[in-house]
Amino acid sequence: MATPAAEKPASTAIDAAREPSPPGDAPVLDPDNSNDTERRATDAERSVKPQMDHPPPEAADPPSPLNESVVTVRAGDNLTRLFRRAGLTAGDVHRTLSAGEDASALEQLRPGDQLTLLRKADGAYAGLRFPVDRYSKLHIRRADDSFTASIKSRTLHEVLHQVSLRIDSSLYLAASAAGLTNSLTMQLASVLGGEVDLVRDLRRGDQLSVVFKETLTPDQESLGYDLKAVRLDGERRELDAIRYTDPDGNSGFYQADGTNLAREFLRYPLEFTRISSHFDRNRRHPVLGVRRPHLGVDLAAPAGTPIRAAADGRIIQRGRNGGYGRMVSLSHGSRYETRYAHMSRFAPGQGVGSTVRRGQIIGYVGRSGLATGPHLHYEFLDHGRHRNPVTVSLPRAEPVAPDAMQDFTRQARPLKAALNGETPEGLRVARGDEEP
After folding, report:
1. CB proximity list for 144: less than 8 A, separation 6 or greater
2. Taking the C-alpha atoms of 295, 381, 300 and 376 in order, what is their torsion angle to the nearest 10 degrees?
3. Helices (H) and strands (E) in the chain, counts
4. Average pLDDT in the 100-128 region?
């Protein structure tokens, strides 16, 4: 993840083991910054082999006495067209697809996929390599007059990086200046957003330490980045967030005492561009021109944007409702209710009485009812009283279970050391331009 030479962050690369990365809630970031090119850190780095379930592991490809050429799949291509363009025959196609059951992976080629074709010195076809997905690769090999197919796991290298950020104007700009990708910045905003108002709580000069994992193939291709820990040392807020995976494989971010940073509710039930109207008990209605309470928040988004259930719940209202237009109301137990208005249409297969899961699509943004443009009007009720959805204190998800605290402490220890810029016990840290 390279950074501009003039703004190279103080960063660290640390050995790490692979863990699954769950999706998180994502508050809105700057929509004008859409460049999400995955850039690799230039710091010295080491890695360890992750746990792989299947198939047998594959090391980096050894030097081959065969001639290799890479071909790229185009729109409308199949294996026959691809081989013909590479100067191979229909017989080569038949022998490849007949090499074994694993060869069926070549029947699902997509534009942009790349195959490495192998030829003998005399030009005779000798097989191919094809990355089936980020974790495995198909090998077709010639043995005498027949071909065999096998899929082997790719030995992935996983590296932890530590980067320091300084807030000058916004979290997004600070993350961009430090070289973080948009994907990592979204993860960072998601983790912090449940605890910190990213507009009001952050101040110029606030410091963040960010630890993230990069997954690399044997040929050093980056497969992506996952946030592992963050520390905020700010004028108004201080926070440590540590990613923990429990024995059942469930992952989340927790404070050092095991408090869950996740909330039962999404702060915002869709991806939006801006808040077009705030919670206001004395707002002038933009259509009617009279003052009446605005007991929710209007989230502007393109028509058709998916609207998601803020939490697990049950549909108690679904249909047209006067100035609300198409509206869905969800009950979340005996205490909470959420309402979603001005939809263009409802999600299919649902109705009053249906249960929905947190994050499940329940409808799509529109401008039905009294609306000047496409947006979601979102309301949050606590014991029947309207609360400001932007500022209301959302109930927390479950903390680390008492019988898992020892395991949590074990996983958190090296991440906390990395946040401090220290070398976690048992791991070697390479800094700056130091040779690994």
Report:
1. none
2. -100
3. 5, 25
4. 93
Q: CA dihedral defined by 169, 235, 182, 277, rounded to 10 degrees?
A: -70
Cβ-Cβ contacts under 8 Å for 63 (sequence gap 6 or more): none
pTM equals: 0.56
What single DSSP character describes residue 366? B
Exposed/middle/buried for 226, CB within 10 Å: 0-12, 13-18, 19+? buried
Range 143-159 burial, b when 16+ CB lie within 10 A, else e: eeeebebbbbbbbbbbb
Angstrom distance (rounded) from CA 297 to CA 283 = 12
In angstroms, the CA 146 to CA 98 distance is 9
pLDDT tens, position by position, 166-213 = 999 889 899 999 989 888 988 898 888 878 888 778 899 999 999 998
CB 381 within 8 A of CB 337: yes
Domains delineated in the chain = 5-49+157-262+409-431 (3.10.450.350), 57-154 (3.10.450.350), 274-387 (2.70.70.10)
